[in-house]
Amino acid sequence: MVLTAADIMRKPPKTVSPDISVSESSKIMRDTGEGFLIIREGTDILGIVTEWDLVSKVMAAGIDPDSIKIEKIMTRNFIHIPPDTPTIKITETMREHGIRRLIVMNGRELLGVITSRDILRIFKDYVENVSEIVYRFGIK
User: Fold this and answer.
1) Which pLDDT band holds residue 77 (cuts at 50, 70, 90)?
2) What is the CATH T-level fold of the domain 5-137, as seen in this structure?
């Protein structure tokens, strides 16, 4: 059985308006325990902001996080995949683009997000299943 994006994605994540401050967005990330936010205006997904964006584009640049809107630092050309994408393609896409989060969309509809942690979780489950089969059949 091949797992797809729909099988491993986290359900729709927290979305925020493009006009909130970077300071406010960092508090939302802290409160939700996620290292990213999806930026939405109405039904349109505009971009994604990660903790790396906060560090590299605001803190390291010496910009006051209360003075800048999240839309100024978000990634607009974000990578997204359809829900039927197989896991091998998911991992290849993340590796090719050097990203740790992948947005799952059905057309323009946000369905969820897959993170590198999700990939590690399914890998752990896979290794445990294979180990159980090996143990059960006494394969050495």
Assistant:
1) very high
2) CBS-domain (3.10.580)
